[in-house]
Amino acid sequence: MEETEAQSQPAKENREVIKRFRATPGEVSKIEAKAKKAGLNFSEYCRRAVLDKPVVERVPVELRRQLGGAGNNLNQLTKLANAGKLPGVGIEALNELVNRLLETLR
Questions:
Q1: In this structure, are residues 95 and 81 in contact, taking their beta carbons and an 8 Å threshold?
Q2: Is 37 exposed, middle or buried (0-12, 13-18, 19+ CB in 10 A)?
Q3: What is the pLDDT of residues 3-27, one digit of tens each?
Q4: Pick from 53, 56, 35, 36: nearest CA to 45
């Protein structure tokens, strides 16, 4: 009998155990703020942090759109430069622009 995709995936564990911990209101506020930035609820954020799983801040939708547009424009310019259709603009200049953009994003 062939194994289907649903059969090959492990069953989702029900999280039935509830543990409490003490924290100051300030600590709870900081945890909630970080969880919100990561797009996670309080429990999932704490679980990932404690289990050394990645917790990354989500990039706002508008910034993702702007970066996507800039990347698209840069790709088009690179294609034109490689085809020799951008007089006076070489690959070196485009590489410098990319490096400056990456440095700004860091």
A1: no
A2: middle
A3: 444 444 456 788 889 989 999 999 9
A4: 35
